[in-house]
Every structure is written in structure tokens, then in C-alpha cells.
Specification:
Elements: E1 6-9, E2 15-16, E3 28-36, E4 43-49, E5 58-63, E6 66-71, E7 75-80, E8 89-96, E9 99-104, E10 107-113, E11 124-126, E12 129-131, E13 134-136, E14 140-149, H1 155-163
Antiparallel strand pairs: 1-14, 2-11, 3-8, 3-14, 4-5, 4-11, 5-6, 6-7, 8-9, 9-10, 12-13
């Protein structure tokens, strides 16, 4: 831990809640400050919510050259970027109806069709994704100020998140 941020080594460390924190069949928003110590070979996930299927109902990962907000079926709102290691990025994923939007540093970065609104039966995880019942895509770096909302935040509300205290 550094300040209030959680530090992860990319080799199996993560934190999680006792159970689901949001109804993933409805509109929702997930937000976090994230910083990578090293770029992953494949994917690394800052925040995800475990589900009862092979894939999670949502992920906020970096991988294959892009930050993303991902939903089942390979649906990803992606921003192609090579992030600076050690730099903080505000990542926000918004599910609004059948669309998902990724925001980076308070600005809309990408919108696409959402995957199925699967029921989440598992915990919110920080520092990893879940895949086929196991941990995967472990984060190498820090994650701070994770927040989940049971509604789709507006563009203005997401922008306001970025003006709050940075890690």
C-alpha cells in the first residue's frame, strides 16, 4: 500500500469484496485511478466484477495496446495508447442500456455496443480479472479510489471525478 493506493506485483496479488457490489444487469459505472509499473504481455485488469459465467460482467483492463472497458462476448470500448509507467490514469467505464463507454482522464475515449448484461454473483476484484472461475490478468502497479455506482454517470459527472484529489 502506498498512501491509500493498493500496490500489486502482477503475480497473483489482488483485493476483493465479500460479494457483488452492483447489479450488472442494469446501468452502472466503475471508476478507479490506475498506474502500471510494467506493461503486460497480454492483459492486466485494474477492476472487475466476478460473474457466474466464464467471463466477468465487466473489466477495466489494459492489454493489446489499449485501455478498455470490457463486457462479455469480447465487447470492448478501447483507447489505443502506450501508457507511461508510473503515471496515474483515471479509468471510468459506463454501461448505459446496450452501450458501453470508456473514459480516460475525464474524457470519453470510446463507445461501443455492450455484451450481454450478465448477472454478477461474485465479488468486485481490484488487481485482477476472473476467467473460468480462476484469477487472471493480474495488475502490475497501483490502483486507488475505486468507486462503483448503480447508475450510468453523465459525461459531466465523469469529468468531475477527474478533478477530485489525485493519488
Amino acid at each position: 500500500m502506498r498512501g491509500s493506493a493498493l500496490d500489486f506485483d502482477g503475480a497473483g496479488q489482488y483485493a476483493r469484496t465479500a460479494g457483488p457490489v452492483v447489479d450488472t444487469t442494469k446501468d452502472c459505472t466503475v471508476s478507479a485511478w490506475a498506474s502500471l509499473d510494467a506493461l503486460p504481455g497480454d492483459y492486466a485488469t485494474a477492476v472487475s466484477q466476478d460473474g457466474r459465467r466464464t467471463e466477468n460482467p465487466f473489466y477495466l483492463p489494459y492489454g493489446q495496446g489499449a485501455f478498455a472497458f470490457s463486457t462479455p462476448g469480447g465487447r470492448r470500448a478501447r483507447l489505443e495508447i502506450t501508457p507511461e509507467t508510473g503515471k496515474w490514469y483515471r479509468l471510468v467505464g459506463v454501461r448505459r442500456g446496450d452501450r458501453i463507454t470508456l473514459y480516460v482522464d475525464g474524457k470519453p475515449a470510446a463507445t461501443t455496443e455492450a455484451g450481454p448484461a450478465d448477472v454478477s454473483t461474485g465479488p468486485l476484484s481490484v488487481g485482477r480479472a476472473g476467467y473460468a472461475g480462476a484469477g487472471a490478468d493480474f495488475w502490475s502497479g497501483s490502483v486507488d479510489q475505486v468507486a462503483v455506482y448503480d447508475r450510468a454517470l453523465s459525461d459531466d459527472e465523469v469529468s468531475a471525478l477527474n478533478t477530485r484529489q489525485k493519488p
